[in-house]
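Sequence in, structure out. First:
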Amino acid sequence: MTKNDLLQAGLHGAFVADGFDSLPSAAQPSRTGDKLATLRLAVKDVFDIAGLRTGSGNPVWREQQPVAARTALAVRVLLEEGAQWVGKTVTDELTYSLAGVNAHYGTPVNPADPARIPGGSSSGSVVAVAAGHADIALGTDCGGSVRLPASYCGVWGMRPTHGRIATDGCLTLAHSFDTVGWFARDHSTLALVFEVLAQSVVAADDDAFSVHVPRNLLACADVPVAARFEAAIEATMKSLGERVSFVAPEASLADWAQAFRVLQAAEIAQRYGAWARDHAASFGADVGARFAMSLTITREQTAQAQRVRAEAIRAMAEALPQGIYWLIPTVPGGAPRADASAQAVDHARARAQRMLCVAGLAGLPQVSMPWTRIDGAPVGLSVIGARGADEGVLRVARALHEVMQ
């Protein structure tokens, strides 16, 4: 049995063999602090680690990459603060999926419900945290690749404001959407990682805030999820009073999700199109189909989608003035079963994108937090804030988590 076989068998399939349990000497940083000294760190295999190749979930891609000379900035900063290296984690191929299913390296096992997929593309990272193999795990979030798996596996996950955390040394799928993101099992660790990466402070203050529940997003949720959410909101309103209210945005989430898909695909084709065309046979069927689709996007489609995105940015700026936050289930429901058909998994992805595209299109910070279970499957809640309001999103998420359990 190979080392990778042992990893797959014993650690929920979360890790790749490279660098597991042993950080190359070239990547050992000079320690500058101890804020993370007791915390174990796992890292999605899209971040460069000096002395290792970055595989990005595809063996052919990995073979063509040089051994990294430098460690990705986000990883280095965490290591400098004393985080303890665990290893690199499995990712969907070049991160172009939300399922967590990899045709080459398998599907990491969802510790919250092994009969269900973990979600992706940061599949190994979320599983490492949910299973207790790591305390912190870095991922990336382009269209929901931290938020969705956090919900599916019942852990905390954060997508910061686009551009808030440097992506130097990290493979990004679509440059105007991708962010560094991360997972943790508790709010305090999630917030601590933000403080280290963003060089900021999430103060424990009592700044006034109001919570809006957008009805158009709630309408995307499965009926049992929406019903439980409305009951939880009723109880929350008794605690927070007039600070919680329902709103009815006029935006078409179908149009927003379609604009997201077009713009993401256009950027993917811009960066990876030639490689994907030349190496089409190296992809699993689902990811290969998405790369092939990206090559068909026209300039006219891109221009129209960009107009929709501009409107989405304007609408969300108006919807989220200072002190206002949105609260909503992160995705429509629990994770699809691991034995579900490819069509069923793709349908779940498309439905989830209607809820996930809001923060993606407008570049907003979003935190997904553990909430409930429906038919045994975890479902998370999300707080969304205005651009740059990451600290507020973290504070509000903590406050709401305390009253909605």
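Second:
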Amino acid sequence: NFIDDIYTCIDLLKKQDNFKIINEKDYITDAKPNGYRSYHLIIEVVTPFEDVHGNKPGTYYVEIQLRTIAMDTWASLEHEMKYKHDIKNPERISKELKRVADELASCDVSMQTIRQLIKEG
């Protein structure tokens, strides 16, 4: 629900010893130019099961994307609007999507602040 929850999840994942983190990208702290925000981890998991190459134990790579509800809503809608339609005015649409992404990021920060105020009593 909150930005802090994402970083708590990341800290918990980093304490696990049943997989290896191969790559991570923090698009929350450093948003993409189009406004996209998320935290991505690529992990390597070794299992007793055969992988696609016939290796046993098998090695699998998994991408984990952590987002707030606002981040996920924006990413889903942006993908649907931008990639599934023939857009006649892409510059204006991109500008508006970036504006909305920034507004939602501001809302995420505001909600995080309200949560903290409630916790403090």
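Remark: The mean pLDDT is 93.
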